[in-house]
Amino acid sequence: MFASAVFAFRIWVQLPIIEKSLVKVSAQELTALNFAFKQMSKPLHTINYDYAVWDRTYSYMKSSNMSAKRFYEQHEYPDDTFKSLKVDGVFVFNNENELVFSKGFNHDNDQPLVFTFTDFKQYPQNKALSPQRKVALPPIEPQIESPSDVPSKTGVIATQYGPALFSSTTILQSNRTGPIMGYLVFIRLIDKNFIDELSQYTVAGVTMSSLTQDEQNGSGINLDSNVAPTKLTASSTRIVHNIDGKPLFKLVLNHTNTSLPPLIDSSVIILLAELSTLLLLGYLLYSYFLVNPVRKLAVDIEEMDKSREIKKLQYSYRISELVKVATHFNALMGTIQEQTKQLNEQAYIDKLTNIPNRRSFEQRLETYCQLLARQQIGFTLIIADVDHFKEYNDNLGHLAGDEALMKVAQVLTQQFYRAEDICARFGGEEFIMLFRDIPEQPLCHKLEAMINGFKELNLPHPTSKTAKYVTVSFGVCTITANDYAFKSESSVIARQVILAADKALYHAKASGRNQFSKTVMTLEQIEQNNSDPIT
Ligand SMILES: Nc1nc2c(ncn2[C@@H]2O[C@H](COP(=O)(O)OP(=O)(O)OP(=O)(O)O)[C@@H](O)[C@H]2O)c(=O)[nH]1
């Protein structure tokens, strides 16, 4: 797509501009051709003028002395003069348009030439050679006032040797006074050497060729017209006209730049290379500042998702939007962390008493049972039940009952110091406790401390048949391992120990409440009880 854009630019923008400028160059070459052709007739005109407005030529025309005339003809127009002046023919006419003197000499190949174009009977159109365009000029008039008024004429004329440039000037005294004594014509053949010289002026290649039928009939562009080419062509043709205005021959200009540069050249390759480098640089910057940070952000979040662990994103991004994303993400993660923490707490904490709930206890019990079965670490489970709590509620109201339960929880938890031990609300007015690997004496001491704690709390319970204050009964079951290899599931222990503690509680209640009843079990007994369906 990128390369297509470059090619489209090349085809639709660059190449048309180049073509336009090349067409302009072609037009300039044609202008140069016309200019050069005119320039080449100037030396001919200059020397023709010099010879015509010259006292010796004037005297020659005036003189009737034949030997003087021959002297002029031989000494002023020797072969060398033709060569040095680059002329191929000299013709002197009198005012009656009669040829007085003529000489032809090819200055390139030193060959004498005998021209016939001066035979005005055969070529009447050539009478136009006369600078005043008259067949006969008056012998005296007109007087010539200034050099610029000297009648002269240049153009192209057909000869039997091919077309020739001519220059024709009236014969006058060198001070340009006196009567016109006729006119002098110089010609230069338009041959190969002439064309070669013309080519040097124009820089482009020029050839001369004959006209087609259509061109003879007037089609084609004149050499001195201002018609510029409109499109790029290999060559252009310009028609040169004869003295009588008829098409005579054509010049073919072979233009120097005729074709457009190729679609892919060194400039296109350089442009492509430059744009590719820019694109690559842009991509690298884009990757460095945007893609890589976004990718790192995605990887960090993906890792967080896999590890299920909420971490703060480390952001050192250079783009402010990404810094914002990371900041907001971290803030969101903080909120989620806080909410998760609260949810966890709610899931494992009893709402009323603010101590661990039954689920929390069960998890801990499971851990204890596994430790017991695998590592022989014993533990004690205690179920505490508020005595006559139904009467308390009935008498003092449910809200007072709630408050009483909160205070019971406080008294019980006062005996817990170690993190591995737990005091939880089991449900209703029942609490459940676990002490890991606690010896008999400290255990009894703790139980007595709890019973005394309620006594000290002295929460009035007017309808209690046990005491005037709220009392609690405890069912205690201690499990010892005794190096017994326990084979059953550890969950069996949990069920059995709760059953045993419950039995003990029942016993404590039956024995008058406000006391604890304690039982001890071994792992072996638990396994036996489990296999006995009646237990
Ligand atoms: N206020 C209050 N009462 C509760 C809550 N949970 C259970 N109870 C009440 O606790 C009472 C338990 O009564 P019972 O199971 O008959 O036991 P008791 O009255 O304590 O009798 P004994 O255990 O034999 O001493 C019921 O009246 C329950 O409604 C609680 O969260 N708040």
TrEMBL record:
Keywords for this protein: Nucleotidyltransferase, Transferase
Keyword RNA-binding: no
Protein EC: 2.7.7.65
PROSITE patterns: GGDEF (PS50887)
A Pfam family annotated for this UniProt entry: CHASE4
Domain GGDEF: 377-521
Gene Ontology CC: plasma membrane
SMART domains: GGDEF
InterPro entries: CHASE4 (IPR007892), Diguanylate_Cyclase (IPR050469), GGDEF_dom (IPR000160), Nucleotide_cyclase (IPR029787), Rev_trsase/Diguanyl_cyclase (IPR043128)
UniProt-recorded Gene Ontology molecular function terms: diguanylate cyclase activity
Example GO biological process: negative regulation of bacterial-type flagellum-dependent cell motility
Reactions mediated catalytically: 2 GTP = 3',3'-c-di-GMP + 2 diphosphate
CDD domains (alphabetical): GGDEF (cd01949)
Cofactor: Mg(2+)
Gene3D superfamilies, sorted: 3.30.70.270
NCBIfam families documented for this protein: GGDEF
Name of the protein in question: diguanylate cyclase
The organism's taxonomic lineage, starting at the top: Bacteria, Pseudomonadati, Pseudomonadota, Gammaproteobacteria, Alteromonadales
